[in-house]
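Researcher: Before we compare anything, I want clean individual predictions. No alignment, no superposition, just each chain on its own. First chain goes here; please echo the sequence and then give the structure tokens.
Model: Echoing the first chain and its structure:
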Amino acid sequence: MASAQGTVRVHEQGQMVIFRVEGRATMTQSLPLRRFAEQRLAAGANAFRVDLSDCTYMDSTFLGTLLFLKGALDRRGHGDFALVAPSPLCCRLLQQMGLDEILPVQAAGPAEALPWTELAEGTPDVNAFKRTVHQAHQELANLEGPAAEAFRAVMRCLDKDPGTGK
């Protein structure tokens, strides 16, 4: 069962990495998700699935991290990224942000019987955390539309903090 804070679990099938989000997906889960995905990309992974069927909320850092991961696969020229069975709450948020046209959705989710491993937060790294937050919001600010303007304002604030990646 998902905790109030949210849990991200992972399963690997060959070169595909499947993440399963339970409960709230926030900046707390963003750094471990990104670190794991980047390690797998370096090891040759070429597909990411993010199962959002049990996700109840996504904050801006988590959404921006998903955009970053899709972009990392796209830059390789042969990657495959999809959100899987987003919950109604996630669908509404994706639509409100205009991300439903950017992040592909796959209707069917992975079987429950898959062996899942919970992603741990690991050793606290304040600078890596700040860089993740900064990059996630930069991804959102780079979008088109009215939501992007709000994130451009966020970026102006973040850019004033020397520890966030500038």
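Researcher: Okay. Second chain, same rules.
Model: Second chain and its structure:
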Amino acid sequence: MDSSKWQSAIVGHGREAAGQLLANPFNHRRHPQKQRDVVASSISELGFIKSVIVNRTTGHLIDGHERVMQALGHGEETLVDVEYVELSPEKERLALLVLDRSSEMATTDSNALEALLREVQTGDQVLADLLSDWSIEESIVDSDPPIPDSECGKCPTCGREL
């Protein structure tokens, strides 16, 4: 691929009230409750750390539907960071298909993941469970799994104060 021919479709950044953002009628992604809980917990713990993507051509979201839903849960006037792109309706539909799928194709370096998991602590049980489940899925044996700040001093098995 000749990168000299690459063009940026990004045309701006801004903030919009969540109630003004339009869900994409072609969005095929559904968000199960467990994912919604993880997104809510990550926003609570970290804040919004990723903009949603809006196509200026159609006004539709291309990425970030669940983050917008979380913002709407706090009121239609909740501000959301937006990255604006200009794509034809046909390219918008392709972007809906490619963005998430290409991310899902990434593989995990178990050693790097294990090192990162050892460095991370969270006070949120939903996020702690996510990290623990991920560690198990990747067959990373952690003799000292992270304990949420809210449970420090408690036995992880029975909850008894230590």
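Researcher: What stands out in the second chain?
Model: The chain has a mean pLDDT of 87. Additionally, The chain is about 40% helix and 15% strand.
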